[in-house]
Design brief:
This protein has twelve helices and eight strands. It is α/β, with parallel strands linked by helices. An eight-stranded mixed sheet has the order 3-2-4-1-5-6-7-8, with helices on both faces. α8 (186-200) runs parallel beside α9.
C-alpha cells in the first residue's frame, strides 16, 4: 500500500470538491510535466532525477523543499535497487505526502472552536494586493456563520480606498467596522476597535493593517506599535497574527514570508488565489520550509471559499 493511501478519506464533501476544483490548474500543470518526464524512459536514473528537480523548482515547490523531495526519492531508489519510471509518480506522491503529513499537527481549529479570550483578537498582515481585505471579509463571514459576533478594524489607513473596500466586505459578511479617516494613526484604530469590541462583548475582533506606508517610518515598526497598543487593551492580544500571501506569486510569496516572519510574530499563514494559478506547489514549499502553520487557503471568490487548511485533504486533492 502506498504511503498516501493510508490517509485517504472515503467521504468527499462539497468543500473537498471545491478544493479539487481550485487546484485543477496546479494538478494539470504538475502532472503534465511529470508525464512528459517519464515518457519513453525505463528507469529512474541521475538524468531523470535532474529533470525531476527542474520540474519541482519550476512548479514553485521551492529550492529547499525540492532538495528534500529529491533526497527522499533517491533514498527510495537506493533502497528498492530498481525503480521504473512508471513507479515515479507514486513515489513522488508518497514523498510529498510524507513532507505534509508525517508528524503533522492536527487540522487547525474550525471557526466554531472554543476561544480562550473574548474578544479573540486577530491581526492580519501582508503586502498590498495579496488579498488581505478579501480574506478578512471571508473570515468574518465564516465566524458569523459559526454563530460568533465579529467586529472589524480598518487599520489600513494609508492606502486609498482600503477603508471603503473593508466596508464593502463587512456589509457582505453582515458585520460592523470601526474606522477613522484616511491617514489616521492605525494604532489608534486598533485601540478603538478593541475598546468597542469589549463594550459590545464581541467574540472576535479582526484588525486590518497596511501593506506599505507613505511615510518614512518602517512598516514593521508600525506593526509592532499596533501590537503593543492591542496588548494594553486586551490580555495577550493579538492572539493571532495571520500573514496573507498570494499563491499566484510563487517564490515571491516565500520571500515575503521570510521578511514578515523575521520581523513580526506571525502565528499562521493564509494562501490566497489558489484557484487562479498553476503555482499551488507553493503550499508544499511553505508548509515544509516554515515552522508556522498554513491556517487558511483561498480557492475562489465566494464568501465560503476561504477554507481551513487540511493537509490531508490538500494532498488528496492535489493527487486526485
Amino acid at each position: 500500500m502506498a504511503f498516501l493511501d493510508r490517509f485517504k478519506t472515503k467521504e468527499r464533501t462539497p468543500e473537498q470538491e471545491r478544493l479539487e476544483e481550485g487546484l485543477e490548474k496546479t494538478r494539470t500543470s504538475f502532472f503534465g510535466k511529470l508525464n512528459r518526464l517519464v515518457r519513453g524512459k525505463d528507469a529512474v536514473d541521475e538524468n531523470v532525477l535532474d529533470e525531476l528537480e527542474e520540474i519541482l523548482v519550476t512548479s514553485d515547490v521551492g529550492v529547499k523543499t525540492t532538495i528534500d523531495i529529491i533526497g527522499l526519492v533517491e533514498q527510495r531508489v537506493a533502497q528498492d535497487k530498481y525503480v521504473s519510471t512508471s513507479e515515479l509518480n507514486t513515489i513522488i506522491q508518497d514523498e510529498i505526502a510524507r513532507l505534509l503529513l508525517d508528524h503533522a499537527p492536527e487540522r487547525p481549529a474550525d471557526f466554531d472552536a472554543p476561544l480562550p479570550y473574548k474578544p479573540h483578537v486577530i491581526m492580519v498582515v501582508g503586502v498590498n494586493g495579496v488579498g488581505k481585505t478579501t480574506t478578512i471579509g471571508k473570515m468574518a463571514h465564516r465566524y458569523t456563520q459559526a454563530g460568533r459576533s465579529v467586529l472589524l478594524g480598518a487599520g489600513d489607513t494609508f492606502r486609498a480606498a482600503a477603508i471603503e473596500q473593508l466596508d464593502i466586505w463587512a456589509d457582505r459578511a453582515g458585520v460592523s467596522v470601526i474606522k477613522q479617516k484616511h491617514g489616521s494613526d492605525p494604532a489608534a484604530v486598533a485601540f478603538d476597535t478593541l475598546e468597542s469590541a469589549k463594550r459590545r462583548e464581541a467574540d472576535v475582533a479582526i484588525i486590518d493593517t497596511a501593506g506599505r506606508l507613505h511615510t518614512k517610518g518602517g512598516l514593521m515598526d508600525e506593526l509592532a506599535k499596533i501590537k503593543r497598543v492591542m496588548g494594553r487593551q486586551v490580555e495577550q492580544a493579538p492572539h493571532e497574527v495571520l500573514l496573507v500571501l498570494d499563491a499566484s506569486t510563487g517564490q515571491n510569496a516565500i520571500r515575503q514570508a521570510e521578511e514578515f516572519t523575521h520581523s513580526v510574530d506571525v502565528t499562521g499563514l493564509v494562501l490566497t488565489k489558489l484557484d487562479g494559478t498553476a503555482k499551488g506547489g507553493i503550499v508544499i514549499g511553505i508548509s515544509n520550509e516554515f515552522k508556522i502553520p498554513v491556517k487558511y487557503i483561498g480557492v475562489g471568490e465566494r464568501l465560503e471559499d476561504l477554507q481551513v487548511f487540511d493537509r490531508q485533504r490538500f494532498v488528496e486533492a492535489l493527487f486526485k
